[in-house]
Amino acid sequence: MQALLEKTNEVPLYKDVLTVLGQPLYQSIIKVVSGKSKSGFVLFDSNSNKIDEVLSLCQRLEIPNEKIKVIDPTKSWTLKFQPFKGALNSAGDLLQTMEVLLSNNNEFFKSQQSTHIFSITLLSIISFGQKTTINHIIQLFLDTRYLADIVEELRERYNNKDQRIFNSNQIKTVQDLLDYFEQDVLDYQATEAGEVSYPDEHRYAGRQIVKNKKDRYITGVKNLFDEFSNNPLMSNLFNYDDGKEIFDTGLFIKEGGVLLVNSATSETENKQTPFFGQLFLTHFQNAVTQYTKECVQAGVRSTPIIFYPCKVL
After folding, report:
1. What DSSP element (H or E) covers 285?
2. How do beta strands 40-45 and 305-309 pair?
3. Keywords, A to Z (predicted)?
């Protein structure tokens, strides 16, 4: 402990500028890594400069690398962010995020939008399981023919009594989802002459055109997703094909450590939409709340987490 305290003399900035619960930032970090019991420290900011400063502080304090986690789209080596991982209750994270970002005073409009967001997310989680990513969900929103294909696949699994569905608690959810999409969402185009197909130059050339009956209610969501998916920095967090490590929220909450998160909404260049930052906040808060409840029920002590939002979104 004394050695760590002595090292803070090299970085007096933190004694004067950054405080957590009335304490200098360096003291909070030292408490996390040197305490007898597990604890965690989270720095959430909108710019990589503060992330870099605190990362430098951690290195000067000789905090082991395995105790430091960084989620920052501006860094090529960032951890990936995967908030779904096949858990049905994680569908609520996206719904809550969108309700914050897309405020709407019309209750009917809001209800239609919320139902569609939640249903799309559930469909993705049930269809792709542990491999579910935000990219699946976005494609289901933006590509109605793809949505129809996934619904048709789920219908086939249901009709064939797929054991992954019938041997789980998902059966009622699947029934409700199929009813919703088949009756209220998917609009297969046809005339008296037969099916109406996509033109030859279309990616789905020759297949029946499918439209979304809910399009008028989800324009804002589609615009946000379109902007998000076309932002190159975000692919650094949500592209899982390069084999890089994915941040494990549950493990961090249980084991503690130092987590540095950059929402990147105030970067000088390549500013991001607030989507990632809000999704992270919602996901992390819900995960901590759920873990705390489980600890209370089990009669065990939960890992305390110090959260420092230098600038929320």
Report:
1. helix 275-298
2. parallel
3. Plasmid
DSSP string, 109-144: HHHHHHHHHHHHHHHHHHHHGGG--HHHHHHHHH-H
Reading the block at residue 141, the tokens are 């929103």
The H or E element that residue 195 is part of is strand 194-195
Whether residue 233 contacts residue 245, with contact meaning beta carbons closer than 8 Å, is answered with: no
SS3 47: coil
Alpha carbon separation from 55 to 23, 65, 250, 295 (Å, rounded): 18, 10, 22, 30
* Residues 77 and 48 sit within 8 Å (Cβ to Cβ): no
Reduce the secondary structure of the chain to three states and give it as a string.
CHHHHHHHHHCCHHHHCCEECCEEHHHHHHHHHHCCCCCEEEEEECCHHHHHHHHHHHHHCCCCHHHEEEECCCCCCCCECCCCCCCHHHHHHHHHHHHHHCCCCCHHHHHHHHHHHHHHHHHHHHHHHHHCCHHHHHHHHHCHHHHHHHHHHHHHHHHCCCHHHHCCCCHHHHHHHHHHHHHHHEEECEECCEECEECCCCCCECCECEEECCHHHCHHHHHHHHHHHCCCCCHHHHCCCCCCCECCHHHHHHHCEEEEEECCCCCCCCCCCCHHHHHHHHHHHHHHHHHHHHHHHHCCCCCCEEEEECCCC
Per-residue pLDDT tens for 90-140? Answer: 888 888 888 888 776 678 888 888 899 999 999 999 999 888 888 899 999
Asked if 70 contacts 260 with a C-beta cutoff of 8 angstroms, the reply is: yes
pLDDT tens across 242-277, in order?
677 899 999 999 988 899 999 887 765 666 678 888
pLDDT for the residue 249: 92
